[in-house]
Amino acid sequence: MTVINQRKFTKESVLEWTVSAESFLQTMSVQPGERILWLGEALSPALTSLTTEKAEITTISPSLFTSNEERFDVAAAQLDIHFLDEGEAWLRKSFHLLKPGGRLVIDLAETATLQHAKGAGYVRNLPDYWDLLREIGFEAIFVQQITALSLTEAVEQGWTELIDGAAFPAAVNRFIVLKG
Question: Which residue has the higher pLDDT, 113 or 42?
């Protein structure tokens, strides 16, 4: 049974912005047959869920870094990019690997959130991320800041990257950017 509230929205049609893998996948809005470039760990919980979406998923690799073929509909990373050796370089490369009209969906944590996280090499603040995405060439930029007030709240939402050393409240910026 679908419940409709007074504003005529169905519960299923409302996107709940949390740091969970489920919310991230809703934001990605993957369509059957889309080609996805995953910027991060191959064992990510969000990526595991995507394998059931009938989408073609490619994780980053050195051979992709030298490719100039525009072949992906979506590039995505859920915090993993902070722990890559070349996080900013992969953000730049994702633009070139996306087809025209492709989208990048990415969660980028604030500096204060990851200041004590082990292995987080790529960390900036909202204005820096915004400026970088514009500089790279993305045209439409949408962002929503998501906050977890405590470690318990973060863990309940599946945000396991914050278990070791995150400061709370923790802020993550969820970007949806489009390549023209």
Answer: 113
CATH of span 16-108+125-143+173-178: 3.40.50.150
Task: Report pLDDT digits (tens) over 90-131.
Answer: 889 999 999 999 999 998 888 888 887 778 887 888 899 999
* Lookup: tokens for 162: 């914050």
Query: Other C-beta atoms within 10 Å of 63: how many?
Result: 7
* The amino acid at 107: D
Do β-strands 140-148 and 56-59 pair in parallel, antiparallel, or remain unpaired?
A: unpaired
* CA–CA gap between residue 170 and residue 123 (Å, rounded): 13
pTM, to two decimals: 0.81
Q: Which one, of 123, 115, 174, lies nearest residue 146 by Cα?
A: 174
Burial 101-140 (b: 16+ CB within 10 A, else e): ebbbbbbbbbeebbeebeebebbbeeeebbeebeebebee
Residue 77 forms beta bridges with which residues? 106
Distance CA 53, CA 56 (A): 9
Domain segments of the chain: what residues? 16-108+125-143+173-178
Please tell me the predicted confidence (pLDDT) of residue 73. Answer: 95
157: helix, coil or strand? coil
Q: Looking at 24-28, 50-54, 140-144, 158-162, which range is the least confident one?
A: 50-54
Q: Tokens 């072949």 — which residue?
A: 71
